[in-house]
Write a structure and sequence with these properties.
Elements (H helix, E strand, L loop, with lengths): L12 E12 L5 E13 L4 E5 L6 H8 L7 E6 L2 E2 L3 H4 L2 E4 L11 H11 L4 H15 L3 H6 L7 H12 L6 E5 L7 H16 L3 E6 L2 H7 L2 E6 L2 E6 L1 H5 L4 E7 L3 H4 L3 E7 L2 E7 L3 H6 L6 E7 L4 H11 L7
Parallel strand pairs: 3-8, 3-9, 6-7, 7-8
Antiparallel strand pairs: 1-2, 1-4, 4-5, 9-10, 11-13, 11-14, 12-13
Helix pairs in contact: 3-4, 4-6, 6-7
Length: 319
């Protein structure tokens, strides 16, 4: 008896040789290229971060993938269907960078309106809105009474996240979701994205806030001047060094100094950098009656790698 071959699951996002050229100038007789022969693939359930300076072409790529604008050349698929497929759009969520809301609606009224666009039945829509308000951290009573024009930037961003999820999408596109937010707002949006990740959603988002990307993404890509510079996981791109950050309890400074550099203590725990393989150091701990609290292999920062990629191509400022 032969086992039937399994058909591989299509990528959630697949793009090949995408280019976009705009006509500019008073007579529209000049051309400006926003994307250049861009190809990438994002697997189902993956959290993918697209990095780049302002004017890199990140928003243009998102709009092409969503079918808002057409590429000059190239093509792609979303959830196995061609870009722009109407039925597939029902399975997508999107938060633009500068979302426009009807200011005189409450959050509840606005989300009810968006749910109506997806033809969600009222009983199910009511429950869905309540669940989303809880997910994004908005008070139900406030959502029903307070008009959106009275909301802060962070609160509006959370309403935007809720509308992007109203149809329980399989793929969520977020364009600079943390732009303009204070540290608390960024933390709240980051927690929402992590919650979506735990649900198995495919998340594709643009950002230039590298610290957030480093904490969230499975893979990243760097885009500059419309050209894709690199794609991969953080470990693939940044690599690993031979430096280990070590935290130890129960040892003395005299015992640790021959092994660690930059030894310092905080809350009764010793910290330092261990060079080389850690096996010999770990074997020494029982002789000191010491305990290893943490061992982390260091790597280059994403910010350093990002700047290096731009400088290697002569890019020294935002466009």
């Amino acid at each position: 008896m032969t086992t039937p071959l399994q058909t591989p699951e299509p990528a959630a996002v697949d793009a090949w040789r995408l280019s976009k050229t705009y006509r500019t100038g008073f007579w529209l007789n000049q051309k400006a290229r926003s994307l250049q022969e861009l190809s990438l693939s994002v697997s189902a359930g993956e959290t993918f971060g697209l990095l780049g300076p302002n004017g890199a072409g990140k928003t243009t790529l998102l709009k092409i993938l969503l079918g808002v604008i057409r590429p000059t050349t190239g093509g792609g698929t979303l959830l196995g269907k061609p870009i722009g497929d109407r039925a597939t759009k029902q399975r997508l969520g999107y938060l633009p960078e500068n979302a426009y809301f009807y200011d005189y609606l409450t959050a509840w009224e606005f989300l009810t309106f968006v749910g109506g666009l997806f033809q969600l039945p009222q009983p199910a829509l009511k429950k869905r809105i309540e669940a989303l308000l809880e997910l994004v951290g908005l008070d139900l009573k406030t959502a029903k009474k307070k008009q959106l024009r009275q909301y802060s930037k962070g609160m509006l961003q959370r309403v935007g996240m809720a509308q992007a999820l109203i149809n329980d999408p399989e793929v969520v596109f977020l364009d600079e979701p943390m732009s303009g937010l204070d540290p608390l707002g960024r933390y709240q949006v980051r927690e929402i994205i992590l919650a979506l990740k735990e649900q198995g959603k495919t998340i594709f988002f643009n950002s230039h806030i590298l610290a957030d990307v480093e904490q969230i993404c499975d893979r990243i890509a760097i885009l500059a001047r419309g050209e894709l510079l690199c794609v991969g996981s953080l470990e693939e791109l940044l690599g690993r060094s031979d430096v280990y950050h070590v935290t130890v309890s129960g040892a003395s400074q005299e015992q640790l100094q021959p092994w660690l550099e930059g030894v310092w203590v905080e809350d009764g725990l010793w910290h330092g950098q261990l060079r080389g393989a850690p096996e010999a150091f770990l074997a020494q701990l029982p002789h000191w009656n010491a305990r290893l609290a943490n061992l982390t292999q260091a790597r280059a920062s994403l910010e350093d790698y990002f700047i290096q990629q731009l400088r290697e191509r002569g890019i020294t400022s935002s466009q």
